[in-house]
């Protein structure tokens, strides 16, 4: 090539470059096809912790709670006693017939008492006799006395003077409000209010018994 030819080609290249630069500057060049999507980048490292936030506002005042005390109770153990007599044959009309001492183990319990034995009353005019329990010398007050009565109406003096029937009878009930410890349980015989008493008999020719049992109070 001659020097003149090389100079001409160099000028043409410069010209083309300038033309393309001008086309790019004035957005006149054609855009090529889009390339393929690149891969996802790796996760970045955790940032430094932020500063603590301000304390929140106080909540509304709650309702007053209830104080609950858990109570552990031991299983209830049976506690009973029997006093028995063969042919008691007690003929008093007023007074204590017999007694049976019992150990009450709980303050919040009741005593069930039972007398079973023969009772008899006879008289020539109308009469009434009352058999009842006492606890340490006093009749039951909670809820009521424990008693049984026999009443004979007035009939002919001849008939009433000969009637003499002995029947096995029971006097039974529950008594509450008795203190813990020894309890003297006694069976008595007495009058029925204003009615006259007759000729009473208790425990004739048979076995008489007093049964005492401690029971839990119902809830």
Automatic annotation (TrEMBL):
Its domain of life? Eukaryota
* Alphabetical list of InterPro entries matching this protein: Collagen (IPR008160), CTHRC1_C (IPR057873)
Positions of the CTHRC1 C-terminal domain: 75-212
Segment Disordered: which positions?
A: 26-64
- Compositional bias, Low complexity, is annotated for 42-55
- Which named protein is this? Collagen triple helix repeat containing 1b
């Amino acid at each position: 090539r001659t020097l003149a030819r090389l100079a001409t080609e160099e000028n043409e290249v410069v010209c083309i470059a300038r033309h393309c630069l001008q086309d790019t500057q004035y957005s006149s060049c054609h855009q090529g096809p889009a390339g393929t999507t690149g891969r996802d980048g790796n996760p970045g490292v955790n940032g430094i912790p932020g500063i603590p936030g301000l304390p929140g506002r106080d909540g509304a005042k709650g309702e007053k709670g209830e104080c609950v005390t858990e109570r552990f109770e031991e299983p209830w153990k049976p506690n009973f006693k029997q006093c028995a007599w063969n042919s008691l044959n007690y003929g008093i009309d007023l007074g204590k017939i017999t007694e049976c001492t019992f150990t009450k183990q709980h303050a919040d319990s009741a005593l069930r008492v039972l007398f079973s034995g023969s009772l008899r009353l006879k008289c020539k005019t109308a009469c009434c006799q009352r058999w009842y329990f006492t606890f340490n010398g006093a009749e039951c007050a909670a809820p009521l006395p424990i008693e049984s009565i026999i009443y004979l109406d007035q009939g002919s003096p001849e008939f009433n003077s000969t009637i003499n029937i002995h029947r096995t009878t029971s006097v039974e009930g529950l008594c509450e409000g008795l203190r813990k410890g020894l309890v003297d349980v006694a069976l008595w015989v007495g009058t029925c209010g204003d009615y006259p008493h007759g000729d009473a008999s208790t425990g004739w020719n048979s076995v008489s018994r007093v049964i005492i049992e401690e029971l839990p109070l119902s809830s």
